[in-house]
Design a protein that fits this description.
The chain contains 9 helices and 2 strands, in the order αααααβαααβα. By secondary structure, it is mostly helical.
Length: 281
């Protein structure tokens, strides 16, 4: 703490010295002042005969370049003074930091050599964890495979119904068009009747497909719930005899030791129980 306080004091002193160095001409030279930035006050411009304040509006490109170079040289000189002071300050602070770190390292080493019986007594116990690869589980668990096949059948049923309704509507619409071209409608009322029938067919088809999709979604949701319950229930039964602290899905972590994988055991147990239920039915 004492070393840090001394470092701060010296840093403030060095910053003050840097400020004084930047303004030494103004502070210690009688009548001293910072160089004017106006074009008519620059020696190089006066030497070239450009001294009027309005000359900046009419000077050539070369004069503008001279003016810019002069200003650049002045600020470059000021920056060098500032960089020199800053470098000195940073060097001193680095030296002080190294000293502090050395002291801290010595103290840390001394603390490390001190017996810590209390810390040993507070050490947390290890956790016994296992994991399951959910992708492999869904691929090899028979109930999951049955549900996947049922889902595919449901999707195929919806697609088949959509194609059937579409074909039926297109066929009737083509018949109306053909009848109209061949002057088959003797009255406007008969034509309007067919058009109303076509619109009703379209509306009925949309409602039928919407209901079919809704029922399929509900069935799939129930199957997914049943699948989750089956897996979770068996894992609880499995762990009752194993006594693990936690069983996680592989997706819950970035890396697991492959030795902690119990996927094959879970799949074997799930299929044995599912097949047994199937045989009983």
């Amino acid at each position: 703490m004492k070393t840090l306080f001394i470092t701060v004091i010296l840093a403030v002193v060095l910053i003050g010295i840097a400020i004084v160095a930047l303004g030494i001409k103004v502070l210690f030279v009688k009548g001293g002042r910072f160089p004017s930035g106006h074009a008519h006050d620059l020696p190089e411009l006066r030497r070239r005969g450009i001294g009027a304040p309005t000359a900046a509006l009419t000077v050539s490109k070369n004069v503008n370049i001279i003016y810019i170079q002069y200003i650049y040289t002045y600020f470059l000189h000021m920056n060098k003074l500032a960089i020199s002071a800053s470098s000195l300050l940073l060097s001193f602070m680095a030296l002080s930091t190294t000293s502090c770190n050395g002291t801290s390292s010595t103290e840390a080493a001394a603390d490390a050599n001190t017996p810590t019986a209390a810390a040993d007594s507070d050490s947390s116990p290890s956790i016994n964890i296992r994991y399951i690869d959910s992708d492999s589980l869904m691929t090899h668990y028979n109930l999951a495979k049955d549900f996947q096949e049922a889902s595919m059948r449901a999707v195929s049923k919806i697609e088949g119904a959509r194609q059937s309704k579409t074909t039926e509507i297109q066929k009737f619409a083509a018949a109306i068009e053909q009848k109209g071209r061949s002057n088959g409608y003797l009255t406007e009322a008969s034509y309007n009747a067919d058009m109303q029938k076509l619109q009703k067919m379209q509306s009925d088809a949309e409602n039928y497909l919407a209901n079919l999709s809704r029922n399929t979604e509900n069935e799939l949701a129930q199957q997914q719930l049943q699948l989750n319950d089956s897996i979770e229930n068996y894992i609880k039964i499995y762990n009752a005899s194993k006594g693990y602290d936690a069983i996680l899905f592989k997706a819950a972590g970035v890396y697991f030791n492959p030795a902690l994988d119990i996927t094959s055991e879970i799949i074997e147990g799930l299929n044995a129980r599912y097949n047994k239920v199937g045989d009983a039915k």
